[in-house]
Specification:
heterodimer, A: 112 residues, alpha+beta, Alpha-Beta Plaits, 4-stranded antiparallel sheet, B: 472 residues, mainly alpha, Ammonium transporter fold, 15 helices, 65% helix, globular
């Protein structure tokens, strides 16, 4: 089992979600987040006062996947989340030791 | 606003026809009676028309404070101070109303008090003749508005007294205690607003242009009384209170320009009641003031936006609405005296000038006029009052009598001097009065919230509630 976290452009979120559903991803957790990597922020001006906004809105997707699905999911996200500009985000993968479904205490891949 | 009385009085009395009819023969007694009846009906009809417009105007001017100004300012503050700034406007709607009934109207529009045998306060402030609204009823007060009940005039003028102190809260925003604000505004209304309103608009007032003041200052709807007084007082408040914690390093962007946008649009519409209503009748002068008001606002929105576009490469929504408000401020003293094209000029000048005030001058001197009450109302009011002296025309409003030049372009450049006297008196009264009152309130109950309250926000610390409970 692998945990996948992807931080993507908010504008790409709907396409990514639809594409993942098509290849059989059954669940995900989504959060609106703010942050930045190499992308610089922008400035806003209110009545002559300039503010630098360096934390930009992003969407974070989290999902835990059976091993056999991981590569396809990564490929799909890479394809659909990409705009080619700085600020497209990142994907992080990490191993997950255990998963338990609260309702019936199923474990591991059965719990996903 | 009483300035309209002069041109109004003439068409209203069909007296000559009546006298010639009565002179002809005794057999026409019935005809005379009929004539008298007709005259009465004509007067009643005019009064009904004027009264309808003035009641609508009064409601429009109240709408400028709540929700207009409350939304405009509410959107400009940070989210944690939204209710506090709105509540200050709303509290003034209630507080000034009660004060107005008790003594306010009398101090502003009553005759002067005679002290001893000779000294009459009438050139500076009214007395207590109308305290508790004594003698204010259905009968018109011909000194001010001869065709509407004095009670209508009274309630209309009240709405001006409400919005004026509310404007000041733009400078004290995000750091002044609610208790301190209430006490300060109450005193400010008595010590600064009442004398100035009486001097400019009250019978016997030093600056009254319609009723023979010594320095006749043209102020159709409140350039000096409302905008210079509040704007200059706002500057004193900003300087006295000091900067908000973290200003100017910490970002303090407006939390909702959508609210400000709605507020500004409500202000624009409400201003028709403010300026066109100041004709005090439903007549051609009201139309003229309505048109000038609209043109001034439009030209100023363009002026501010153009200046911003040149400087920053973009025209912002906040810039456009701020420009419109600056134009409305500047056209206020001029509305009933200037033709449409000069109104465009006044608006455009005010838009560009106020843009410079809030973007350049403020940072140059470093005062924290949080929502630019001085930059827009003080500066816009001053330039408007000055330009009124330049562009006023007898063709629009022969306030000094038929055939007499009014403003500079009529050939009466001396009027610019009169305007300067009015401006100077308003500035000095606002500066000194505000400074003294701030000191008094500071000593009595304190003005500024403790720093930790400022950080937490005034909504919670002053009022125990939050503007947005999005999780609930």
């Amino acid at each position: 089992m692998m945990k996948l976290e992807a931080i993507i452009q908010p504008s790409r979120f709907e396409s990514v979600k639809d594409a993942l559903r098509e290849i059989g991803v059954e669940g995900m957790t989504v959060t609106e987040v703010r942050g930045h990597g190499r992308q610089k922020g922008h400035t806003e001006v209110y009545r002559g006062r300039e503010y630098t906004v360096d934390l930009l809105p992003k969407v974070k997707l989290e999902m835990v996947l059976p091993d056999k699905l991981v590569n396809r999911v990564v490929d799909t996200i890479l394809k659909t989340a990409k705009t080619g500009k700085i600020g497209d985000g990142k994907i992080f993968l990490s191993r997950v030791e255990e998963a338990i479904r609260i309702r019936n205490e199923e474990r591991d891949e059965n719990a996903l | 606003m009483l300035l309209a009385v002069v041109p109004l009085a003439a068409p209203q009395t069909p007296a000559p026809a009546a006298t010639s009819a009565s002179a002809t023969s005794g057999s026409s007694k019935a005809a005379n009676e009929k004539l008298a009846q007709l005259e009465q009906r004509v007067t009643a009809a005019q009064s009904s028309a004027d009264n309808a417009w003035m009641l609508v105007s009064a409601a429009l001017v109240l709408m400028m404070t709540g929700p207009g100004l409350a939304l405009f300012y509410g959107g400009l503050v940070r989210r944690k101070n939204t209710l506090a700034i709105m509540m200050q406007s709303f509290a003034l709607m209630a507080l000034i109303t009660v004060m107005w009934a008790l003594v306010g109207y009398s101090l502003c529009f009553g005759h002067g008090m005679v002290i001893g045998d000779r000294f009459d306060t009438g050139s500076v402030i009214g007395g207590f003749e109308h305290a508790f609204l004594r003698g204010v009823g259905a009968e018109p007060n011909p000194d001010y508005a001869g065709t509407i009940p004095q009670m209508t005039f009274m309630i209309y003028q009240l709405m001006f007294a409400i919005i004026t102190p509310a404007l000041i809260t733009g400078a004290t925003a995000e750091r002044m205690k609610f208790s301190g604000t209430v006490l300060f505004m109450l005193l400010w209304f008595l010590v600064v607003y009442a004398p100035l309103a009486h001097m400019v608009w009250g019978k016997g007032g030093l600056l009254n242009a319609a009723l023979g003041g010594r320095f006749p200052t043209l102020d159709f709807a409140g350039g000096t009384v409302v905008h210079i007084s509040s704007g200059v007082s706002a500057l004193v408040c900003a300087l006295y209170l000091g900067k908000r914690t973290g200003y100017p390093k910490q970002p303090m962007p407006p939390h909702s320009l959508v609210l400000s946008f709605i507020g500004a649009c409500l202000l624009w519409v409400g201003w028709f009641g403010f300026n066109a209503g100041s004709a005090l009748a439903s007549n051609a002068l009201a139309t003229s003031a309505f048109v000038a008001t609209h043109f001034g606002a439009a030209a100023a929105a363009l002026g501010w936006s153009a200046a911003e576009w040149l400087k920053n490469g973009r025209a912002s929504a906040l810039g456009a609405i701020s420009g419109a408000v600056a134009g409305l401020v500047a056209i206020t003293p001029a509305a009933g005296f200037v033709a449409p094209i000069p109104a465009l000029v006044i608006g455009a000048v005010a838009g560009v000038l106020c843009f410079g005030m809030v973007t350049k001058v403020k940072s140059l001197f470093g005062y924290d006029d949080a929502l630019d009450a001085f930059g827009v109302h003080g500066a816009g009011g001053t330039i408007g009052a000055l330009l009124t002296g330049v562009f006023a025309q007898q063709l629009i409003n022969p306030i000094f009598g038929a055939g007499k030049a009014v403003g500079g372009i009529d050939g009466h450049w001396g009027q610019v001097g009169n305007q300067l006297v009015g401006i100077l008196i308003a500035w000095v009264l606002a500066l000194v009065g505000t400074l003294v009152l701030l000191k008094i309130v500071d000593v009595l109950i304190g003005l500024r919230v403790p720093e930790e309250h400022e950080v937490e926000g005034l909504d919670i610390t002053q009022h125990g509630e939050e503007a947005y409970n999005l999780e609930t």
